[in-house]
Amino acid sequence: MHLPDLWTLADRADTLPWQPFRPGVEIHRLYGDGTGPSAALLRYQPGAQVPHHTHTGYEHIFVLAGSQRDRHQTYAAGSLVINSPGTDHAVASDEGCLVLIIWEKPVVIHNP
Fold first, then answer.
1. Helix (H, G, I), strand (E, B), or coil: what is residue 106?
2. ∠ CA(48), CA(78), CA(66), 5° rounding?
3. For residue 62, what are the CA distances in angstroms to 77, 79, 103?
4. Contact call for residues 99 and 41 (beta carbons, < 8 A)
5. Torsion sign over Cα 57, 104, 65, 50
6. Burial class (CB in 10 A: 0-12, 13-18, 19+), 52
């Protein structure tokens, strides 16, 4: 697989085969199915959220366009966020965003 020029990917994101992931969030899987090591692009609509979850392995998030936030701060385009095993958070995007996400292991979603 090859994704040329990640910085312009947001301009051509509509050419990818997106699937529903969470309300307001779509996924384009690059590899894996979410049960083991996986990588994907996530596209958040403005106001979309991913519920509170715990990381069972490392999670790497590279914000390609827009911004996303958790309880710690807001991460603008160009940010790399690394969440360690055992950490937890919820994620939201006020303006919408496109991120590259790489999971070492699945996350555990908490019930509200």
1. coil
2. 30
3. 8, 6, 12
4. yes
5. negative
6. middle
Q: Which amino acid is at 6?
A: L
Q: Which two tokens stand for residue 27?
A: 């996924």
pLDDT of 99 over the 90 cut: yes
CA gap 44, 75 in Å, rounded:
14
**In this structure, what token pair is assigned to residue 10?**
């947001």
Residues 51-71 have pLDDT tens digits of: 999 999 999 999 999 999 999
Mean predicted lDDT score pLDDT of the chain: 94
**What secondary structure letter does DSSP report for 8?**
G
Residue 6 is classified by DSSP as G
pTM over 0.90: yes
How far apart (Å, rounded) are the C-alpha atoms in residues 31 and 46? Answer: 26
The partner residues of 43 in beta bridges, in order of sequence, read 26, 98
pLDDT band at 20 (very low <50, low <70, confident <90, very high): very high
Backbone phi and psi for residue 62, each to the nearest 5 degrees, phi listed first: -115, 115
